């Protein structure tokens, strides 16, 4: 049964994460409203993946609160599915010994739904292949299908365009735009981020430096400084 | 091959073995029975190590647990079926306890834990010698087989009946969702967690299933030998079991069957060789050496094990590590 649309979506309030003396995230607040796509960008080491790991329960925040649809979110990774959250990994994260269909069937045993999701992601014709035999772009599609098969209310996409060509990124953009669930997107490919996101949060050294619509982010000086370095 | 076909193959294979017990001489029938008992253990171990990626060096000790439980139960006057059930329950519980600890460990630490189990269990039999009769062990008083059936035939039918049940249940288990989850956890724990798989739960379950199979195998050994002693379950047995499933083909029940055959055939071959060259002093170590050589040869010729060989499809040497690494025969370059 599909998850009901969330009322409040995901809310991160004043999240900080410290690893000993290193501050990975500091005072990050963000809302991912129902049905919206929010991008998180920033240079390498800005804390984007740490933010994802906090939402997924791989990293416990040092301070701050998370809520999903008004209820506190204290996630444990294997229980995310029950809360309607799905995530793709920075690499493809497929299981090499399983076929494409079996990969999608892990954690979701409804075969019809798995095949329909593969069809939707454009990977149905590879259902009996092992991931190692597939082009990288197809593996990415399979990873996306495995996340979407649970019909999540919130989808976390960690650099989904990494390693893809221009045409493939365009197709990925169309796929993301067509999703009905909320999407939190970490991505370096700016064209994709600017095309699919309704809002963007920019992190630098773990701190939020800008938050706004794609147009606002494009013209933000702090964002340019973060990416290009402050003018001397 | 579909799941139903695999189960049909298992049933057909066991039926062939039962027919062989009717025509084989008693010693060969006893060897077949031993293969059946080993098969219960190797099938469980290949699920744990091959499909779930948990290395156990302590399955010999789990076998000993099953064997001693059966011996104590039978000697207490329990019927044989109840004694088997007791062996199953006790090893399952112990497997669960070891599995809970094992789920928190990885790589060499996991191997170290299971190795400790293999060392501790024989020591327990010496410490509590009032119950286990120390190194002398326990005899298992069994009733004679019914009618005109020979003892060896009865033992073989018992062993292969148990092997049939174990193999069919394991095939049903690994052919479905649980099998996918076992492999997913082995391949990528993080991705498995994100897909909703309880990694620790899956690992503990794998250990419990594998321990239960080892317990049944150990109980069968008690029936075959009609005695139990710590010397029957040395540390080297645990090593042989691991080598057997690797040589047979990790992660497949067919590989487990090949492994069980080797566990009986290689020591018998060693015995024949030492007798032939009149060097009985070698007999104790020769099986280990034979296993080592077989392991090296099979890994070079067929990294997937004997079960992965397709003799009529392609040469096994085409898939050797050398050719996989790109070391192919030199060919003349064609001119541009």
UniProtKB/TrEMBL annotation, chain A:
GO MF terms held by the record: ATP binding
Record-linked PROSITE patterns: ABC_TRANSPORTER_2 (PS50893)
Keyword Cell inner membrane: no
SUPFAM superfamilies: P-loop containing nucleoside triphosphate hydrolases
Sequence intervals crossing the membrane: none
Alphabetical list of Gene3D superfamilies matching this protein: P-loop containing nucleotide triphosphate hydrolases
Alphabetically ordered keywords of this record: ATP-binding, Nucleotide-binding, Transport
ABC transporter domain boundaries: 10-230
Pfam families: ABC_tran, BCA_ABC_TP_C
CDD domains in alphabetical order: ABC_Mj1267_LivG_branched
Protein name, per record: ABC transporter ATP-binding protein
Organism: Winogradskya humida
Automatic annotation (TrEMBL), chain B:
Family annotation (Pfam families): BPD_transp_2
Segments traversing the membrane: 7-24, 30-48, 55-74, 80-102, 109-128, 154-174, 204-225, 231-250, 257-274, 286-309
UniProt key word Membrane: yes
Domain of life: Bacteria
Membrane-protein topology: Multi-pass membrane protein
Compartments reported by the entry: Cell membrane
Record's keyword terms, sorted: Cell membrane, Membrane, Transmembrane, Transmembrane helix
Cited InterPro entries: ABC_transp_permease, LivM-like
Statement: the UniProt record of this protein carries the keyword Membrane: yes
Main localisation: membrane
Protein name: Branched-chain amino acid ABC transporter permease
Organism: Winogradskya humida
